[in-house]
Structures are given as C-alpha cells and as structure tokens.
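Input structure tokens:
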C-alpha cells in the first residue's frame, strides 16, 4: 500500500477518516512483491479510513484490546472505553496461554464445537490475537479450526452463523456475481477458497453449510502459510442441495432446492470464474475445495488453462501423500518403483495421489507414465478397477484400468495384488477391516497403511487398530489426527497426512512469484519441499512427516521450492526473481504482531 492509496470501508456513521502512520511490528508482513512494505514505509504515513472510537474496538482487523497505548487511545477516541491498564500482545498471549483466560476456557469446554465457537469469536473480536494464539499452539488448535471439528461445525453451520465470514453466491445472484464480489470489504485478494458444499470432507452434501471449510482453510493459509488475512476470501457457491435432511429443515440457511446441474451449474461457475478474474486479475489463486468428483475434475481441466486454479482434494492431498511416501521410504528402504500401491477409493484424492506417484516414478526412472501407472491399483465401490470395466468407467478412472480378472472386494484385491502400500481415500469409515489389515501384515514386514478419509469418524481404520492388527509393525498415517498409541510397551506416533502441510506453503509460493498457472511440476516441488523437512530424528522416531510445530518454517521451504519452479517454467509475473527465495518467502509472511497506530 503506498501513501496515496485510500482504503475505504463501506458505511457506518462512526467511520472517520484518519491520517495514520503505520509501523509494522515484528517484520515486513503486509504485502508481497511490488506491494511489499519496506523498512522505509515503516515510517511513511499512509492514509487510510478505519473505524475509530467504539467501532475501532469492534473491528477485528484493527482491534488490539488492552494493548492500545494511551497515545493511541487519545488519537483514536477510545480513552475511557477500556480499563486503564495497557497490556502488550506478548502479555496478552501469556495471559491467555497461562491458562488464566481464553486457552484455559477453551480447554475446559467439553465439546469440540464449543472450542471452535470460542476461537471463531476471538477471530471476530481480535484477528491478530487469534492468529498469534493459533500459531503458538498449532498442534493443539489445528484439530479445532480444521479437521475433524470443522466438519461438525459445517454440519451445524446454520446455528453457528452469526456474522459474514465469506461470500455466499447462490443461483439468486446469477447475473450479479461481479456486484457481489464488490460487496466484500477487501479489494486486494490473493487467495480464494471456494466450495459448492457437495462433498464436505467425508460427510457428504452439506450445501450452503459448507462455508466452514473455506473459512477454516483460509485461516490456515494465514496461520501456517503467512498469507495476509485481508487477502483471503472464503466463498460458498449455493446451487441447492440434495441432502434431504437439509431440504426439510426449516432452519436451513441455503437454497431449498435440489442441486442445479448441467448448463445451469456450468453457467453459474463460468460467471463466477470470469467475475473473479475481472475483479482481482489473473494472479488470484482460486482453490477448489470439496466439490463432488463429477464437477471437481471438470472444473480443474476447464479452468486450469485460463486461471490460477488448484484443487486441494485432488492435488493438495496428492502432494502431501507423496511427501509421506518419500518419508516412509526412509524407513522401508527402496524406491517408489519398488512398491506396489492399492487404493480404496477412486475419486479425487485416490486418482490425484495415484497420478502424482506415477509422475514422480516416471521422473525417477525415466519410464513413461503409462508404464509407472501399472504399479498402482484402485478399488472403487464396484471392486478392483480392471480393463474389462473400461467402457463403464468415468474418464478419470480409465488410466487405472489394468489387465486383471475381476475382483469385487477390497480383501480379495489385497490378496490378489499383494500391495506394499494400502491407501484409503473413499470417505467411508471402518473399511480397513481386521481381515484386510491382517492380510497386509501377512506379506509385508512393515505394511504402510494410510487411512486418509476425513473427519476422524470416516477414517478407514484407527491408529490403534492398525498397530494392534499388525502387532505394532504398521507404518500408519491418517488424514485427521490420532493420538499416539502404546502397543506392547512401545509408543507409536501416527503420521498425519494432512493437506495443511502443503496448501498454505504452495499458495504462498504461487503468490510471491506472481504465478499465473499451476503446473504439476509445482506440486512435485511442493511435495519435495515437505519431504525435505523430515529430519533424521523424525525418521528415528518412525515419523514420515515433520511435526506441525515447525509448520511455518516448512511452509516457507515449500513456498521457496514452488516459487523456484514457477520461475523456472516461465510462469512468474513478479520479476526479477529474488535471489534467495527462502529468505524472500520468509520475509513476505504475515506475522500477527500488533502494529503501532500513530
Ligand atoms: O481437509 C483435509 O485435510 C483434506 C480434505 O481437503 C478433505 O478431506 O476434503
Ligand atoms: Mg477438502
């Protein structure tokens, strides 16, 4: 933001124009590339319209609570609205973290949803304090703002909805989508996460209530990837729902009609994609999230050549899992090409992961991808995907239809294929039964079992089951977190193949390089960036992923790797290329330290 930029917030009688001098406490964090605040700008006045007085304390972007100094209280008409103590942000966080106040309260709540609501309330009250708390306590709070609790939040989103956290674009907004985008108070958007709510985690069609997902994912873009909160825009597209329960619920917040399909659906999406490009330019990253298979693949193919789009369920999951496999190879030995993979679930995650593994194998062995795909087998609801089923398969399944007699159950497929790696991506819980896991343990010294479906209730098997049924020999990771398990006196720490490892860093890398398209090689770069962060100590502890506590450092490494690939492919619009991309990524990351208002 330069000294002439005027940021105008809409409406409100108490909104005053103020000349403010902003300093950025704790580093440069307010923009990227050409918009980046430099040290000089820390003392340069910029003009901005912000809420003052009472409404300043109610503005989550600017509120600092008791941290306002008396000088600020005088300058911004808030003297007397706060008790007389001035508390630093560090003290506020310590106050909170010392179990006296918020974190203490959050921990006391019995129900995860109460914790979720308390955190969302904090975000609504004081955004920087929310992010500071989330970053400082990431392992504890991630499962609250994200899977599994966010799933329950979506199921009950109607009763949680209080204030707008993102934009709702329904069929009623047809022809007016550009106007709707302009109603969002922030102008400079860098990342949009959009869902149509048709397949929320493994919970099915939650319609308009899917909004919790874009909100949660974008909170992680900021906390884990350092993308400014004001640059993030959650969007839910409402084309109806086929969820009978919601259709019959008098309190349902979305359109009460069956889902629009075909041309009606495609036209709305087309208008949306065009409006986004028109309003924000072509460098805005659009992350598709939790669309049903039939739309997810089409949208990615259709807009991948014209927009900066990324499907987290297809591509993000793939990059995370590939990194975990590379980590697991450090424990198992051998190369990817030495392994045989069997998937339960041939949708977005299953085929996305399968393809990225095949691409990486092809890169390593120089064999064509058509060859490397042959080490990978998929089972869907009708059994093993084999060539005799080819005619009736959806297009995204066809590359996996290898020569084999028909097999109808997962157990029989395990026995027939004898995979070294079993991956669950079906969204259906408890499908890795005792027999299936025991069969894996029969012909594998260390069976690798990835139960990736979310939330926890949909996991193919629990961590405890995997360790118990393999006498502690399994290497196990899940999509939603599981606590460590003690088996026969040994503590096993399950891995978490969680998309949150990848998308924030990937997004940051795309944003800081000004990427205009996403390319598969950038996903591989992201995956390698994550795998590179698994240390020798992690391996010795049997971990295939690095701990989440270092996630901001991990994200910076991923961002640097991705940005390097964007420049290499000539798809970067922010030129010249910074020499040290890691340093550059770190310097661009938003930190939630309070700023001084003069
Ligand atoms: O949220 C995650 O980590 C994985 C995901 O996108 C999903 O299950 O839809
Ligand atoms: Mg998802």
């Amino acid at each position: 933001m330069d000294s002439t930029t005027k940021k105008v917030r809409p409406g409100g009688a108490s909104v005053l124009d103020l000349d403010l001098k902003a300093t950025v406490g704790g580093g440069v964090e307010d923009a990227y590339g050409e918009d980046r605040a430099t040290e000089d700008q820390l003392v340069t006045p910029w003009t901005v319209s912000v809420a003052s007085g009472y409404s300043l304390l109610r503005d989550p972007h600017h509120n600092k609570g008791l941290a306002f100094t008396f000088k600020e209280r005088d300058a911004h008409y808030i003297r007397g609205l706060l008790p007389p103590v001035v508390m630093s942000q560090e003290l506020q966080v310590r106050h909170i973290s010392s179990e006296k106040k918020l974190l203490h309260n959050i921990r006391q709540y019995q129900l995860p949803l109460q914790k979720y609501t308390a955190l969302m309330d904090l975000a609504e009250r004081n955004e920087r304090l929310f992010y500071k708390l989330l970053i400082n306590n990431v392992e504890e709070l991630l499962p609250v703002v994200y899977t599994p609790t966010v799933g329950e939040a979506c199921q009950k989103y109607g009763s949680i909805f209080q204030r707008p956290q993102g934009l709702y674009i329904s069929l009623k907004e047809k022809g007016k989508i550009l106007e709707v985008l302009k109603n969002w108070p922030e102008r400079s958007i860098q990342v949009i996460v959009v869902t149509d709510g048709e397949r929320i985690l493994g919970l099915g069609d939650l319609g308009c209530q899917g909004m919790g997902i874009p909100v949660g994912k974008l909170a992680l873009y900021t906390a884990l990837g350092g993308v400014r909160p004001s640059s993030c825009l959650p969007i839910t597209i409402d084309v109806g729902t086929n969820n009978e329960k919601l259709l019959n619920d008098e309190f349902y917040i979305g359109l009460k009609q069956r889902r629009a399909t075909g041309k009606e659906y495609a036209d709305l999406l087309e208008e949306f994609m065009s409006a986004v490009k028109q309003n924000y330019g072509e460098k805005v990253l659009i992350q598709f999230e939790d669309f049903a298979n039939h739309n997810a693949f089409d949208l990615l193919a259709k807009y991948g050549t014209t927009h900066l789009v990324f499907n987290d369920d297809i591509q993000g999951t793939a990059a995370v899992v590939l990194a975990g496999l590379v980590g697991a190879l450090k424990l198992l030995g051998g190369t990817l090409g030495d392994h045989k993979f069997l998937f339960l679930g041939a949708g977005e995650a299953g085929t996305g992961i399968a393809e990225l593994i095949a691409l990486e194998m092809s890169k390593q062995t120089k064999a064509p991808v058509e060859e490397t795909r042959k080490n990978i087998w998929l089972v869907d609801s009708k059994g093993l995907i084999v060539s005799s089923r080819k005619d009736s398969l959806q297009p995204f399944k066809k590359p996996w239809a290898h020569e084999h007699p028909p097999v109808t159950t997962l157990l029989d497929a395990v026995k027939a294929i004898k995979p070294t790696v079993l991956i669950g991506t079906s969204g259906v819980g408890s499908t890795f039964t005792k027999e299936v896991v025991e069969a894996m343990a029969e012909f594998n010294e260390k069976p690798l079992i990835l139960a990736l479906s979310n939330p926890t209730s949909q996991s193919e098997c629990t961590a405890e089951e995997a360790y118990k049924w393999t006498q502690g020999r399994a290497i196990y990771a899940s999509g939603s977190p599981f606590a460590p398990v003690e088996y026969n006196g040994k503590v096993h720490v399950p891995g978490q193949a969680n998309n949150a490892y990848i998308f924030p860093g990937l997004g940051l890398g795309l944003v800081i390089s000004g990427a205009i398209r996403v390319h598969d090689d950038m996903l591989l770069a992201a995956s390698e960036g994550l795998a590179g962060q698994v240390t020798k100590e992690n391996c010795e502890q049997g971990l295939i992923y690095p701990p989440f506590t270092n996630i901001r450092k991990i994200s910076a490494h991923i961002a640097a790797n991705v940005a390097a690939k964007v420049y290499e492919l000539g798809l970067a619009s922010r030129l010249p290329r910074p020499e040290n991309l890691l340093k550059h990524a770190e310097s661009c990351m938003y930190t939630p330290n309070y700023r001084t208002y003069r």
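Residues 289-290, 312-313 surround magnesium ion (ligand 2) (CB under 6 Å). Residues 1-47 have pLDDT under 50 and may be disordered.
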